[in-house]
Structure formats: C-alpha cells, structure tokens
Write a structure and sequence with these properties.
mainly alpha; Cytochrome Bc1 Complex, Chain D, domain 2; binds heme C
C-alpha cells in the first residue's frame, strides 16, 4: 500500500517535472531527484525503501551505467523505469548530479 501511494505520488510529480520544460530543466530535475527519487531513497538521498544514493555509494557506476539504471529501473524490485517519463538527456543529467552534486 505504501508502495502504491509512493508510486502515485512520484508519477504525479514526475509528470509535472517533465512538462516543466521537456529537456534539461535543471531546477525541475533537481526537484524530481529530491521529491520523487527521494520518496523512496530518502529526501536527502541517504536511503529509505531504496538504497543510499549519495556519491560514495554510487562509486561503482559511471554516468552511462547510472543513467541506464534510471531509465530502465531494476526489474523485479521497486525501482521503477523512468524512460516513460524522462528523456535520455534528463537521465544523464540526473546521473551526473548524483555522482557530483557539488558541481550543479
Ligand atoms: C518506488 C520507489 C523508488 C523510486 C521512486 C526510485 N527508486 Fe531507485 N531504487 C528503489 C529500490 C527499492 C532500489 C533497490 C533495488 C534492489 O533491490 O536492487 C533502487 C535502486 C536504485 C539504484 C541502484 C543503487 C545501487 O546501490 O546500486 C539507483 C542508482 C536508483 N535506485 C536511482 C533512482 C533515481 C535516480 C530515482 C529517481 C529518478 C529513483 N531511484 C527512484 C526504489 C525507488
């Protein structure tokens, strides 16, 4: 049930973010990361239902692999695929943002 509510919330917000500019609208994307990803990974991305998304925990990913996880999700888990909602460009931006938040 909690999962359903989280999913509904995240779809509503993600649609808002996606329509807020289409491509790399960094403010909307940052918001999406903290609100939508944060609904499962924690508002400060320290982990919740999903694992810690701070750079230290993502060291084993490069931008491409991380963008791939974001776009395709992790089948068989609660990690949803984001490709219906965001562009490849947005996923790349998010991957870079997660790996190096201080540069954004
Ligand atoms: C509905 C809940 C939910 C939402 C929303 C969600 N995730 Fe996840 N995510 C998970 C779960 C659960 C896992 C762990 C899956 C597993 O067991 O491997 C995960 C795993 C991940 C991983 C792999 C972490 C690792 O240590 O290998 C990354 C990266 C990730 N999510 C990024 C994101 C990003 C970026 C967003 C927002 C665009 C997002 N997630 C939104 C639930 C969610």
């Amino acid at each position: 049930m909690v999962r359903l509510v989280a999913a509904a919330l995240f779809f509503a917000n993600a649609l808002q973010a996606a329509s807020a500019g289409g491509t790399a609208d960094t403010k909307a994307l940052k918001n999406l990361v903290h609100q939508d990803c944060g609904s499962c990974h924690g508002l400060t991305l320290k982990g919740g239902l999903g694992p810690d998304l701070r750079p230290k925990n993502l060291e084993h990913y490069d931008v491409e692999a991380l963008a791939d996880v974001i776009l395709n999700g992790i089948p068989g888990t609660a990690m949803p695929p984001w490709h219906p909602l965001i562009s490849v460009e947005s996923a790349n931006w998010i991957a870079q943002y997660l790996l190096k938040p201080e540069t954004r």
